[in-house]
Design a protein that fits this description.
The chain is α/β, with parallel strands linked by helices. About 30% of the residues lie in helices and about 20% in strands. The chain has 12 helices and 34 strands. Helix 9 packs antiparallel against helix 12.
């Protein structure tokens, strides 16, 4: 579509020698905005539904647009009907109402400036282009039908509404807006959404083909000027909800999903989420009531809501950093939150993002541990697994328990496990029969338990022996050291427990470094 045309030239001055840049109406020198009333009426009277129109660069007021749409209105449907529509570089000075309009030919709205644009229930049968378009308020495409390929790239000061729109052919949508709503949209072909600044709503959307949503990596660099309300915002893009949507064909790239509500979405395990996406995190720091420290991990906002609602003191939970649940958020049970974690964990694993998938495994186990409908034995086992190693994902916790167990074993060995002295083998002889045969028997006496004050039992020699016993126990080997009865049972216990703790620590490290 050409960007050059014969200008109207109305109002030219030495400072602005071009004047009005609206294209000349066929058969007249001025543009539609500067025709005389008689000439404008004659021109509009010659239009019929389905006529190709070209009003590039023309400033259109709301009454003038209403007159144009009225001239193209189909008597059978009562709606405007265009052939090919050229509105490149048009300035719509008021609300532009194209509701229920039909564009049989190509619709060109490149570099258009709107105050407020309404295309509710509009049908685009030809190619659609909104390259460089801008509005200070809203773009409405509610129930719009895009029957052919479309390229839409514009800036919006407040809201882009695509609710219940249908895309029959591949489209590329690029928006810089404060909010983009795609509720109950139907994507019947592949699509690519490139967003800047926006909070995106995809509730009840139907994705029949792959649809990718990509957040901007930096500030907006398009040709259209940014509305004042967007200049001060960070360029990041967030996803608000996918409730009720089948997201099997949805792929997210560089999207903030820290406040996204996933409950109610279908096929979350097939959704593609790359490592640039940002999830909510747990509060970090020391617990005020118990001597443990919260370790930071990726979470779902549904877990935040559950913890606040089930906290003994909800205000304290919010103060620690858990998100406050909005009134509309459903009250999910731990089993439901665990199911969300399980599905999204599989999605991350399929994308070879093992470290972030490990965080979701942690969240799933947490919800199972707090699920009172599960058997008591399972919850007890999960509690022990959490306390010892953070479900096999907290290496420092497992190593801490290992060091504690080794220190306790050394102490027990030094005080009670090692005998007072190493027993020396004793050999005894006995004469047997008339042939003067001698029978020798060698035996080691039982180790003697140490006696005396406990402080006197601590020595460098006994510590060294106890350390050898413990190190051998960690690698599941017997030290061969003579031990008392208490020492023997202590060694048996350490040979069982300490290798397990070492294995949990190794498992936790592997879970963080595995690709």
């Amino acid at each position: 579509m050409a960007s050059y045309w014969l200008h109207c030239g109305h109002g030219a001055t030495p400072e602005d020698p071009v004047g009005c840049r609206g294209i000349q109406v066929p058969g007249y020198a001025p543009c539609l905005a500067h025709l005389t009333d008689i000439d404008r009426s004659a021109y509009l009277a010659g239009l019929v539904p389905g006529t190709d129109i070209d009003h590039r660069g023309t400033p259109l007021t709301e009454p003038l647009l209403d007159d144009l749409l009225g001239a193209l209105r189909d008597p059978a449907t009562g709606h405007p009907c265009f052939g090919a529509a050229e509105f490149h570089s048009v300035t719509f000075e008021d609300v532009a109402m194209f509701d229920s309009a039909t564009f049989h030919g190509d619709a060109e709205f490149g570099s258009v400036t709107f105050q407020d644009a309404w295309f509710d229930s509009a049908t685009f049968s030809g190619e659609v282009e909104f390259t460089g378009a801008a509005t200070t308020d809203r773009f409405w495409f509610r129930k719009a039908q895009f029957e052919t390929a479309a390229y839409v790239n514009f800036v919006c000061g407040r809201l882009v509404l695509l609710d219940m729109a249908v895309f029959h052919q591949p489209v590329m949508l690029s928006f810089a807006a404060r909010r983009v709503s795609c509720g109950r949209t139907r994507w019947a072909a592949t699509a690519s959404l490139h967003l800047t600044y926006a909070k995106l709503h995809l509730d009840d959307a139907v994705f029949e083909y792959p649809v990718s949503v990509t957040g901007a990596l930096g500030p907006y660099r398009g040709d259209a000027p940014l509305p004042e309300g967007l200049v001060s915002q960070t360029p990041g893009v967030s996803l608000a909800t996918v409730v009720g949507a089948d997201v099997a064909h949805l792929a997210l790239h560089n999207i903030d999903v820290s406040e996204c509500e996933f409950a109610g979405a279908v096929h979350l395990d097939q959704m593609r989420v790359d490592g640039w996406c940002t999830f909510a995190t747990t509060p970090s720091g020391w617990n005020r009531r118990f001597p443990w420290r919260w370790s930071q991990r990726n979470t779902l906002v549904e877990e935040h809501y559950w913890r606040v609602r089930n906290a003994r003191h909800p205000a304290e939970a919010v103060a620690r950093g858990w998100a406050t649940p909005p009134q509309h958020a459903p009250e999910l049970k731990p089993a439901a939150v665990a199911a969300l974690y399980r599905q999204l964990r599989k999605s991350l694993e399929d994308g070879k993002n093992e470290p972030d998938a490990a965080d979701f495994y942690y969240g799933e186990c947490e919800m199972r541990r707090h699920d009172t409908t599960r058997p008591w034995g399972e919850r007890t086992l999960l509690t022990a697994y959490w306390a010892l190693s953070g479900y096999g994902l907290r290496a420092t916790r497992a190593l801490g328990w290992l060091v504690t167990a080794m220190a306790a074993t050394i102490m027990v060995m030094v005080l009670w496990g090692l005998p007072a002295n190493d027993p020396n083998p004793q050999t005894t002889g006995q004469q047997v029969g008339a042939g003067q045969k001698l029978k020798l028997t060698t035996d080691t006496p039982d180790p003697r338990n140490p006696t005396g004050p406990l402080g006197e039992r601590v020595s460098t020699e006994r510590f060294e022996k106890a350390l050898r016993v413990v190190i051998n126990s960690v690698v599941f080997r017997s030290s061969g050291q003579d031990l008392t009865t208490a020492g023997t049972y202590t060694e048996m216990t350490s040979r069982l427990a300490e290798p397990v703790l070492l294995g949990l620590a190794v498992l936790a490290v592997r879970g963080r470094v595995k690709r």
